[in-house]
Amino acid sequence: MPITLPKLPYPMNALEPSISAHTLQEHHGRHHKTYVEKTNALLADTGMADWPLEEIVKATRNGGAKTALYNNAAQAWNHDFYWKSLLPRGGGMPKGKLADAIAAAFGDLDKFAAAFKDSAVNHFGSGWTWLVLDHGKLMIVSTKDADTPIAFDQTPLITLDTWEHAYYLDYQHRRDAYVTAFLDKLANWEFAQQNFERATDRKAAAE
Ligand code: FE2
């Protein structure tokens, strides 16, 4: 089965005014679509054509001849995760067990939001900012270009795409305004909470 472009989980205009329909049309319909198409083209003759996307990413992370496949497969995976990390009328603060864990790891929720913003705004060049679980520890990490936590044995909970194509049409160079819109109006904390509970349940079952 070739890798397919997943549908957006909301209409193109559902994130306005924080992210315009124009941005989503370009970002999902051109950038994400191209990563999927290139992944499928590069999978030819690798023996991995029927593998799940996540396994392709993990198997190709070590560079060398598979670097182009890794970059495109990781970007295909990252974008699917990013669309799920956004929610119309989202944003604000996480709740429940995830909120408790964030407060324990970062001091309080405001300090967490400030640290996430700092990491996303100041990450140099193209990449992604994530809240991850790293062997049970909550961490904010920014990855470069296509790099993805799933290639480094970390469990992502939520992500923000900080490539310019994610915000330039709406915010030009003002990445800080885009990051603020994500934290205040778009972040899908319910998705992050589900990822957190799945990961912590899995860890508890393994102990
Ligand atoms: Fe992107």
Would you write up a description of this structure?
- Helix 1 runs antiparallel to helix 3, helix 2 (53-59) crosses helix 3 and helix 4 (96-106) crosses helix 5 (109-122).
- A hairpin with a 2-residue loop joins strand 1 (127-134) and strand 2 (137-144).
- The mean pLDDT is 95.
- This protein has 207 residues and is mainly alpha-helical.
- It is 52% helix and 11% strand.
- It has a 3-stranded antiparallel β-sheet.
- The chain has 2 domains: 21-85, Helix Hairpins (Orthogonal Bundle); 96-206, Iron/manganese superoxide dismutase, C-terminal domain (minor pseudopilin epsh fold), CATH 3.55.40.
- Bound molecules: fe (ii) ion (FE2).
- Fe (ii) ion is lined by residues 27, 31, 79, 161, 163, 165-166.
Quick tags:
207 residues; mainly alpha; Helix Hairpins; minor pseudopilin epsh fold; 2 domains; three-stranded antiparallel sheet; 3 strands; globular; binds fe (ii) ion
In short:
By secondary structure, the protein is mainly alpha-helical. It contains 8 helices and 3 strands; from the N terminus they run αααααβββααα.
- What can be said about the biggest beta sheet? 3 strands, antiparallel
| Sheet/helix structural class | mainly alpha
Given as residue ranges, the uncertain stretches (5+ residues, pLDDT < 50) are: none
The arrangement of helices and strands along the chain is: HHHHHEEEHHH
Name of the CATH homologous superfamily of the largest domain:
Iron/manganese superoxide dismutase, C-terminal domain
Q: How many domains comprise the coordinates?
A: 2
